[in-house]
Design a protein that fits this description.
Elements: H1 2-17, H2 31-43, E1 48-53, H3 70-75, E2 81-85, H4 102-114, E3 118-123, H5 141-145, H6 152-166, E4 179-183, H7 200-217, E5 223-229, H8 236-239, E6 251-255, H9 267-286, E7 289-295, H10 305-314, E8 321-324, E9 329-331, E10 336-338, H11 349-357, E11 361-362, H12 369-373
Parallel strand pairs: 1-2, 1-8, 1-11, 2-3, 3-4, 4-5, 5-6, 6-7, 7-8
Antiparallel strand pairs: 9-10
Helix pairs in contact: 9-10, 10-11
Bound molecules: beta-D-mannopyranose.
Beta-D-mannopyranose (BMA) binds at residues 85, 87, 97-98, 124, 325-326, 328, 338.
Amino acid sequence: MNHFFNALIILALVSCCGKAPEKPTDLNATKETVNLYNNLKKIMDRGIMVGHQDDLAYGVTWKYEPGRSDVKDVTGDYPAVYGWELGHLELGADTNLDGVPFDKMKSFIQEGYLRGGVITISWHGTNPMTGESAWAPEEGTVTSILPGGEKNEFFNQQLDRIAEFMLSLKGHRGELIPVLFRPYHEHTGGWFWWGTTTPDEEYKALFRYTVDYLKNKKNVHNLLYVYNTGSEFTNAEVFLRRYPGDDVIDMVSFDTYQRGDASIDSSFIRHVATRLDIIEKVAAGKNKIALLGETGYNQIPYNEWWTKRLLPAIEGHRILYVLFWRNAGFKAHEKVTEYFVPYKGQPSAEDFVKFYNHPLTLFQNEISYQEIYGQNK
Ligand code: BMA
């Protein structure tokens, strides 16, 4: 009887005094999105999730083979985070700028979601003012697409397509699949039309306009918003120069890639670690989540890069995930080969398995749908 009574008290205490769920910036976010937001905050106590762009669509030597993934070929397991890309959706195209059909993308997104994977989406949108690619900055672009600009209506139609896509992502019960949306990324560099040719205040206005349009005009409530710079910052002030506001951003991040000969140059470790320190402090101060949006070492020419460079760079950091860019393979029109995780037999594959087995890293088998999307205490 006594034991029973004690157990009751403990149960009451736990259920009364557990942390109340927190809201993401979208106060009307769907149940799964709120769950995801709260669950992601907790999962950082366990480790760092590992993600891969376009993982389920193709690898270095294959395309559209059901169930296949280069990460799985090497480790036996899927990544915990799946990155996808919307470029060309804004034009009403059926395939994205990298040739991935949007209908296939939707089913890959559903597949990853049902396994409990986290979905993140980037958007290398064409320049709405000139019709050139995302990599064609032109002064005045953002002014032209914001209210009062001559391309505002045109840009709204592009956002309509983004909204329609997000609202078409459905799980098994018809619920919307939550997405970490990372638009207008690497904006501290000069290569995109939303980059440094766009004045800071306009960048903020563009971000806020997009969030407002999706949320309030299109009723999109399955998004968490990610602020993402390049690596062109060495303090919080510069990192936050174009931060659109605590009321529209849920996560803070940056992108950076290993360059040069990593086997003789270890400066990547410090380069990443010092920036992670900065964004983690920012995240802690603002009650946001920090993450590494994109990284990798093209073709991984240093066999121990995973355990000797990447791991030491992220160890001891409180970040949600690290995402490796896509395994495009040979890109015919640029005549370059691009892949950021090993395929089976690639010389760094063995080291990637060590990275996989390291207690810090979380892949699909270490997380469940319930842990990521369920309502947990
Ligand atoms: C870049 C490259 C391009 C690709 C773009 C969008 O980093 O991989 O080939 O078109 O991302 O996915």
